Amino acid sequence: MLRTTLAGLRLHKSRYVTTVLAILLGVMFISGTMVFADTLKASYEESVMGSATGVDAIATPAEPEYVEGEDPAEAVAFDEEQLERVRDLPEVASADGMLEGRAVLLDAEGRAVGFMPPAAVSLGDASRFSAKEGRLPEADDEIALATSTASSTGFEVGDTVTMLDADQEKRDFTLTGLVNFGVDPNFSMAGATVLTENVVREIAAPQGYSEIDVVAAEGTDDETVAKAVEEELGATAEVATGTEFGEELAEGVGAQTEVLRIALLLFGVIAMFVAAIVIYNTFAILIAQRQRELALLRCVGAKRGQVFRSVLTESFVVGMVSSILGVLAGIGIGMAGARFAGPLMGTDVTASVVIGPGAVLSGLLLGTLMTVFSALVPAMRATRVAPLAALRTSATASGLEKGTGWVRVVFGLLLFAVSAGLIGLTRMTGPDPAGLFIVTGAALIAFVGVVVLGPLLVRGIVRLVGVPLRRVGVPSMLAVDNSVRNPRRAATAMIALTVGATLITGYSVVSASLESTLTKTLDEQFPVDYQISPQFNPDELTVGQEETETTEEGAEEGVAGTEEGLEGAEGPVEGIEEGAVEGTEVAVEDEEPLAALATIPSRVREDLEKESTVSKVFGVRSDSAEVAEEGVGGPLESMPVSTYVGADMGTDLTADMVEGELSDLEPGRVVLSEGYAGGMGVGDTLTLVTPEGDLELEIAAIAEDMQSLFGATVSEEDFVRAFPERTQDDTLMIRGAEGADSAELREAVYSAVDDHPTLQVDSVAEMKNQFSQMMDIAFYTIAAMLGLAIIIAVFGISNTMALSVLERTRESALLRALGLARGQLRRMLSIEAVLLCLIGAGIGIALGVVFGWAAAAAVLPNMVFAAPAGQIAVFIAVSVLAGLLAAVLPARRAAGTSITGALASE
């Protein structure tokens, strides 16, 4: 039997070409992902370890213990005395501290770089970082940049680079080198600049050394020097050898690459699932066609078990050969991906390609076992038909032409009913992340329903679309009839395409709905054209540091502005010292600096209000206060408090409300977001504990979560009572005048911030466009990943067509003999393949739209449903093209077969 099986494979190897390709592609994706992720991980680790092992020991400030109920304390940086003590150790040859703060870097146009300022650090001779290009700065007018920062700004060695010092004055430096900080989390997000110690102290005002790097004395190993440093610094430091420090960083990097690996493997699993459907269909058709051959073997003495093992052996050989080819192709794909995709992900792949045993074994085992398991049912079917019955010609495709029984129909409809019930459940419970899992379960149940009802769906859809096709001509009429000749076979072939169509359409609906919802939210709740906000600086500890006008005239203006903001208040404002000015550090009663983000100078607002192209400017001011009532404030102990200065609430700013109206906001009243309302409602009293005392407010309205309002929104007068020191805006909203030229409006906005480089201007239209582009990129990336499943599905349809053509050789010859031209025969087979593709794609699109809507509604409050007609139309066109391609080779073979030879074949 083994010789017979292998001989049959050699004789009919062409029948397995598309099956081999389907398995090969699936295994290629799995193995390629493993090689890509392993190589990327090794490159990251090599980068991290290479920098960390450049020194023998690394000391970092110890993290204070967390005390429940208190704000987390910050680690205390090392001082000069601690650094000198480390240098004096006999086990230490040299040691240098790294000063670290943040300072504003300006781009070539004079605007601040990044959402937050890059790190400003000093690197000594004993440092785990070194210059990748050029050299480190030696003079106070020199600078080095992180390679990522240089790449984003376009600066090159030799260029003049400008930064802002502590007084917000511009200071020029010559770029002397580039430093690769790798994936160190302290520098990978916002980038970094490298300066001399003197300059870092001047412009970034660091609290001390954030790290001490140590080189061991000759004859001292790294563990010994690390232990000596640890004993010297005591509990104030966490000390590790360079290798240990690198391994800790590499562990975090490894977690990131594992997330990428899992994400890519999900697409690989989808591809393998589609391949399994193709394999099952192929073996089912082949076994059905070879029943006479297998029956003859039974008649000459072969037992059922031998026939069963023969089919499994055949599947094992096909699976193993395909998997070997797939692993080899996967290694090549993984190598190419690491080389070309690595730089796009922010790293240069320097490590050798990693071909681990997991990449090889997983591909071989998965591909082979999947093929064998997919052939189990056809193999069992091969042993059930009696030999004499199978020898009849009419039994050629037994087992695949059976109709759809009523049990199958009832079971399929029941599955769809359960799926619909689960979707209804998510709509009743409202938006909840857990609803996404329910929708996923409903989609899987519905897909099983499609598998169960597949033959019925194929017959019904073909009969519907076949009405106009029958009138087109004889080839179309024959194609319609052939499509429903074997409904189970057709259903199994199109199911593979349905999987890919469902996933692609579903994601496109989620993406389009998310974009539409965001656009609607921005249009309705923020009817503005531009937003101005200061650059975020986590190290900023003063209010209004952006304002630099500290002249006597400016001071007088600042006090006047404060008094204007407090019009109606009796006496001096408690908590603000006389002479305090906007844009400078503000003293409160305990004389400690107020921790706050930078704010926007009042002059920017004044300049904008003078512009004829601007119709409205209103500001946002925010702070936080403790809540007196128990159970209010959600998971936080304090509540965000905001006011919109100059805004007409309900007109300039809107929100979807649970209770009350936004326009009801007035002095003495507050609007709460639903998540912070707790059990309180309209008319209840909320007491905010502020630095100026308790502030009792009546709840005027409650807004839905995920709106423009967050926490407590109060009137401008109440905000001033609670936070009198907050006299400047955190954010400015600008709306253009009716009919204003967009270019002139843009020029007016940017002119207002010319003297304030750290103020960032965001165009709402550009924000929408960027988000749309981001969603498009995500869609096409995912569509490309799922495209592999589509290709495999097309191979499956092509294989089904090829085997059907082989089975209908005499029939095709008879049609030719009766006058059907070769072109008509090719057209008939092409229409048949296109019908299968369109049915699979159509069912997938319908499922994708429904479950895409359900998934979006499960996570998006006030979701605006959108089905991207353009993308769906493109997918339908691709399905038609796929059907035509799937029919090319089978149709060519059928048209090229000799009529007399085919009629005499049996």
Automatic annotation (TrEMBL):
The membrane-topology field of this record reads: Multi-pass membrane protein
Per UniProt, the ranges with Low complexity bias are 557-570
Q: Where is this region: Disordered?
A: 542-570
What region holds the ABC3 transporter permease C-terminal domain?
266-385, 785-898
What coarse category fits the chief subcellular location reported for this protein?
Answer: membrane
Any transmembrane segments, and where?
Answer: 262-288, 316-341, 353-377, 406-425, 437-462, 490-510, 777-806, 833-859, 865-889
* InterPro entries reported for this sequence: ABC3_permease_C (IPR003838), Macrolide_Exporter_MacB (IPR050250)
What keywords are annotated for this sequence in UniProt?
Cell membrane, Membrane, Transmembrane, Transmembrane helix
Subcellular location(s) of the protein: Cell membrane
**What's a GO cellular component annotated to this UniProt protein?**
plasma membrane
Gene Ontology terms, MF aspect = transmembrane transporter activity
Which stretches are tagged as biased composition: Acidic residues? 546-556
Tell me the first and last residues of the signal peptide. Answer: none
| Similarity comment text for this entry | Belongs to the ABC-4 integral membrane protein family.
The molecule here is called FtsX-like permease family protein
Please tell me the species this chain comes from: Nocardiopsis alba (strain ATCC BAA-2165 / BE74)
